[in-house]
Design brief:
globular, Rossmann fold, 4-stranded antiparallel sheet, 2 domains, Alpha-Beta Plaits, 7-stranded mixed sheet, alpha/beta
Length: 282
């Protein structure tokens, strides 16, 4: 059952501290962040042990102080009912141009222009396009759509469905996804309907008994999630196909890149945004 509440941890901090604190929040299972100008807000689901997040934050503060780094940030925790979640996002969520062709919109945004519209209903499911890991995937899909044969596409852990919608609108077909979280599955289904993506095939998340070999596979998870699926991903990739791996921090990408090299992939490109990294490989 989804929780009846959620938490906001609102930070006031220096600009140079934002990336480190934001990354730290995602490491402790934040669902998303929102810039406030004076700092940022981190959102957590209601079943989060928020007292553990606070304890970790104070330990993090002490380590910054001991290292001679800026530790003088403040934060406030708010516990809100879930019906306020969309209201909070509506106040801060803006249309997001991505790459040269795309724009990510919420259903209430009005847009007149030539960019390809990706409409996402904000929810607790990760992936509105505003986080660096999602944005790098979107940019990667767009770039590859201009240089490769647009065949079958697989999004592992589709979340909100944003990468799947992007690939479908850029011409990849047929479209396949996996997802283990029912809340995310329901949210993705709504987003597929909003974008008129009716031909999405759902595969078993264990990635077993799949005969299709995919032209493009995206996997925006975590280091451990990617490591656990990497062999299966490479098995499912068409010999001429590409993979996009994201959700990695910059200190982690070398481990995955080296593993890909050991498994025989030679064309490996690393893209970095702030403290995050993604890998495109063939």
């Amino acid at each position: 059952m989804p929780s009846d509440n959620y938490y906001i941890v609102e930070f006031v901090c220096a600009n140079e501290s934002t990336d480190g604190l934001s990354n730290f929040m995602f490491e402790h299972n934040a669902s998303g962040t929102e810039d406030t100008g004076a700092g940022f807000k981190a959102y957590f689901s209601g079943d989060t042990a928020i007292e553990n997040v606070v304890s970790a934050l104070e330990t993090y503060r002490a380590s910054l102080k001991n290292a001679g780094l800026d530790w003088n940030f403040t934060y406030e925790i708010q516990n809100k009912p879930n019906q306020d979640w969309l209201h909070e996002w509506k106040k801060g969520l803006q249309p997001l141009p991505v790459g040269n062709q795309l724009i990510v919109l919420a259903p209430w945004h009005e847009y007149v222009g030539n960019r390809i519209k990706i409409i996402i209903e904000p929810a607790m499911a990760f992936g509105t396009g505003h986080h660096a890991t999602t944005m790098m995937c979107l940019e990667g899909i767009e770039a590859l759509s201009l240089k490769m044969t647009k065949g079958s596409f697989l999004d592992i852990g589709t979340g909100s469905g944003i990468l799947t919608i992007c690939a479908a609108k850029l011409g990849f077909s047929p479209i396949y996804v996996t997802e283990i979280d029912q809340v995310a599955i329901d949210n993705a289904a709504k987003n597929f309907a909003l974008n008129k993506n009716h031909d999405v095939n759902i595969l078993n998340p264990e990635l077993t008994n799949i005969k299709e070999r995919f032209s493009l596979i995206t996997c925006n998870l975590t280091l451990n999630g990617i490591k656990g699926l990497l062999d299966k991903i490479l098995t499912l990739k068409h010999p001429d196909g590409y993979i996009i791996l994201s959700g990695l921090m910059t200190a982690q990408e070398s481990e995955i890149a080296e593993s890909l090299k050991q498994k025989g992939l030679k064309n490996i490109k690393i893209i970095k945004h702030s403290s995050w990294a993604s890998i495109i490989a063939i």
